[in-house]
Design goal:
The chain has 14 helices and 17 strands. By secondary structure, it is of the alpha+beta class. It has two domains: 277 residues, Nucleotidyltransferase, domain 5 (2-Layer Sandwich), CATH 3.30.420.150; 78 residues, no CATH class. The strands form seven sheets. Strands 1-3-2-11 form a four-stranded antiparallel sheet, with helices on one face. It has a three-stranded mixed sheet with strand order 4-6-5, covered by helices on one side. Helix 3 packs across helix 8 and helix 5 packs antiparallel against helix 8.
């Protein structure tokens, strides 16, 4: 809690995380050993609900309710007894006079929480803000800034919050005469950390803090079963025992330092940034700059990376790829394609083995025969070849297939073994005989040639 606003951040239990996933923020940090830590966190800010702004609204409401009386003095139970403070608005002057009643102060502050405002879904906290239900068995809150100063500076109760003891101390302080408080202040009873202005509003801030904690966030008071906590009870011991019996311990603690480091609202930013400087263990085919492993935060939905909504520790938007639905699909499929290929390959291998040798042969025969048939038809062939020897060709066989006649003519045996002289003109005009040698070696051996034939013809030859 600060002067102008109040904030809260917590990770709901598993049930509430699933039920209210759209209300959460995704946060990724990294520990010192490089291990990634991911959280689904609810965060909210209430502007105008800080201690100083709440007091300003409170005074305005006091004036509004008091105006019909025309009395310039307004009783204020949130000020120490007999303390008078002049206030002015645009038209009138008033004086606030303290009555020092903590219970009345809490009651008059309660409407400022605006718990009657509608919110878009149940449950609601205050100020019209919806939030997942808080499980105090899981969520133990730490309060900083005003929570620490209001409990520690005067009442010396920083740390584990004890409602019964704290409320008693606040009630006793506020009921004191203002002059006696001034004497303690001048004597340095509370050191130099307080001045008169801070002490004047301490009762209001203490009451407001309790209102926000208990009526706002619902933090248990732990002492409702004690009809009179001050009568014969060791309050601290009873509170701890009661907390254990109710399933929670220390539901709220105020802190100033942890491990010697001052805690403030800026610490979260520092943790986020410093976490991003720690290297992670990089696995095969992974990049340390991979957006799916970066330290940062964004909305807890499927568009976290594809719609430019993931933020790095500096607050800049990190692009996860091409914008839009296609870019998101590409990002998803790009990460899954290797696994899908391996899966389908494994399935095919299992099927190939399961159908047996006979089945595999049928698959190979059917696929290869169809492939060759299509290929040979494109080339003008019938698709089935057989071996023919020279001299075994019937001249009158013709199925009209392109290129058949040429093959038959080429397979005809020569009519004579004697070389035939071929006259050829000479440069000097005389003729000489040249022997055509193209057919000499053709009959020396029975050359095997291939030609296309029809399927019916092929069957007849085999028979």
């Amino acid at each position: 809690m600060g002067g102008a606003s109040a904030q809260v951040a917590y990770a709901p239990n598993g049930t509430e995380t699933q039920r209210h996933a759209e209300d959460l923020m995704f946060l990724r940090l990294r520990s010192l050993d490089g291990e990634e830590k991911e959280y689904k966190v609810f965060v909210s800010t209430w502007l105008g609900y800080g201690a100083n702004e709440a007091r300003r609204r409170y005074i305005q409401e006091l004036i509004t309710q008091h105006k019909p009386s025309y009395d310039p003095v307004i009783s204020d139970p949130c000020l120490p007894k007999d303390l008078e403070l002049p206030i002015e608005n645009s038209k009138s002057k008033f004086t606030l006079r303290g009555t020092g009643s903590l219970s009345q102060c809490i009651d008059q502050q309660t409407p400022l929480l605006a718990k009657d405002l509608d919110c878009h879904d149940d449950p609601c906290l205050f100020g019209g803000v919806h939030a997942p239900a808080i499980d105090f068995d899981v969520n133990h809150f730490v309060g900083v800034s005003e929570y620490w100063h209001t409990t520690h500076d005067v009442f010396d109760m920083g740390g584990t919050y004890d409602y019964a003891t704290y409320s008693q101390k606040v009630q006793k302080f506020c009921a004191r005469d203002w002059r006696s408080i001034q004497r303690d202040l001048k004597s340095g009873k509370w050191g130099k950390k307080l001045d008169e202005d801070k002490v004047q509003v301490l009762c209001f801030k203490a009451a407001w803090m309790m209102n926000v904690l208990h009526d706002g966030f619902g933090i248990p008071r732990l002492t409702r079963e004690f009809t009179n906590p001050s009568a014969g009870h060791n309050t601290t011991t009873d509170l701890i025992d009661s907390a254990r019996n109710h399933g929670f311990l220390d539901p709220f603690t105020s802190v100033d330092k942890i491990g010697g480091v001052e805690v403030s609202w800026t610490l979260g930013k520092m943790v986020l940034y410093s976490s991003s400087t720690i290297g992670r263990v990089v696995g095969p085919m992974e990049s340390p700059e991979d957006i799916y492993h970066m330290v940062g935060f964004g909305p807890n939905n499927d568009d976290l990376y594809s719609q430019g909504e993931f933020y790095d520790p500096t607050g800049l938007v990190v692009s996860g790829g091409a914008a839009g639905a296609l870019g998101h699909l590409k990002d998803i499929m790009g990460r899954r394609i290797p696994g899908l290929l391996l899966f389908f390959t494994t399935i095919l291998v299992v099927i190939w083995i399961a159908i047996g040798k006979e089945g595999r042969n049928k698959v190979k025969d059917s696929t290869t025969r169809k492939w060759f048939k299509k290929r040979r038809k494109v080339m003008g062939a019938s698709g089935i070849y057989e071996r023919l020897e020279a001299g075994e060709v019937e001249e009158d066989v013709d199925d009209g297939i392109g290129g058949r006649q040429w093959a038959l003519q080429e397979l005809k045996p020569p009519t004579s073994r004697v070389a035939t002289p071929v006259p050829s003109p000479r440069l000097d005009g005389t003729a000489s005989s040249l022997f055509a040698m193209s057919n000499i070696g053709r009959n020396e051996s029975r050359e095997r040639l291939s030609r296309p034939v029809s399927r019916d013809e092929s069957k007849g030859r085999h028979l």
